[in-house]
Automatic annotation (TrEMBL):
Residues 1-16 have a biased composition (Basic and acidic residues). It comes from Flavimobilis rhizosphaerae. This is TetR/AcrR family transcriptional regulator. Residues 1-25 are annotated as: Disordered. The keyword DNA-binding applies.
């Protein structure tokens, strides 16, 4: 009878090699790990702070697999930027939920004013004052928006022309999708207000103008918060002075030229006041 310990031959004690990953699995792991690391560091104009060796360890893929997928760091960075662009697409709306709630609450509490063009103009003004301020506060506090802003600044640094074109194409497609979502929301909002659009103006125009104003002020506020966030006082709904964020004031200045406050009658029942 053998005195050999049977556990010495237990196959479960024999180290097993990790299953070989496909190229698609390796790529997905690396890109997911990069996004996770950037949640901590943030995206800068350069991606040099993103350690490839740390990334390979975090993704738990072989170094050979990484360099087979991306023979150079530049190729990896370009692929990562395109991945960030796709992953950052809005699932439902470019507006944060609080901005939408502020707009809906303003409409609800002032629905009795919508019977005249002057009333519709006043309610629209108040809605843009409150929702516009909330929107720019949310935007400047958003890490994903700051990453997107930095992303645009990296495009010219992508050496490979094909990948640079792919990145530009992805950014344009994302911008167009966001525009269409906002245009649909503005269309619903105008119907609730009982307003139309001036001749030659589309809901897409409204969406693009609004986005450019808010984003432009957000960029300026990052550079000089002491200037671009200084409130401006002017009469509000009841004639008393109220505070306006400069971005909201610029938004109102543009929108009152684009919106027809003598537009068609409200197409929605008075109790239906939240378009989103």
């Amino acid at each position: 009878m053998s005195s050999e310990d049977p556990r010495e031959n237990d196959a479960s004690d024999i180290p097993r090699r990790a299953p070989r990953l496909s190229s698609d699995q390796s790529r997905a792991r690396v890109l997911a790990s990069a996004l996770s690391m950037l949640e901590t560091t943030g995206l800068t104009v350069s991606l040099e702070h993103l350690s490839i060796e740390d990334l390979i360890r975090a993704a738990d893929v072989p170094r050979s697999a990484f360099y087979r997928l991306w023979p150079s760091k530049d190729l990896f960075y370009a692929d990562l930027l395109e991945h960030i662009t796709i992953e950052s697409e809005p699932s439902e709306t470019p507006f944060d939920p609080t901005t939408l709630d502020v707009a809906a609450q303003t409409l609800q509490s002032n629905i009795h004013r919508l019977g005249t063009p002057d009333g519709r103009r006043a309610v629209t003004e108040e809605m843009l004052r409150l929702a516009g301020r909330r929107n720019i506060d949310a935007l400047t506090a958003s890490a994903s928006w700051r990453d997107a802003f930095a992303l645009v600044a990296t495009i010219n640094g992508v050496a490979d022309p094909t990948q640079r074109e792919n990145l530009v194409r992805a950014l344009k497609a994302g911008d167009e999708r966001r525009t269409q979502i906002m245009a649909a929301q503005y269309t619903q909002l105008l119907a609730l207000l009982g307003c139309g659009l001036q001749p030659g103006v589309t809901a897409e125009t409204l969406a693009r103008v609004g986005a450019r104003i808010i984003e432009g002020f957000a960029q300026g506020q990052m550079r000089r918060p002491d200037l671009d966030s200084t409130m401006i006082m002017r009469p509000g709904l009841d004639g008393e002075p109220v505070a306006w964020h400069p971005a909201a004031l610029a938004l109102w200045g543009a929108f009152q030229l684009l919106i027809d406050f003598d537009g068609p009658a409200r197409a929605t029942a008075p109790g239906t006041t939240k378009p989103w």
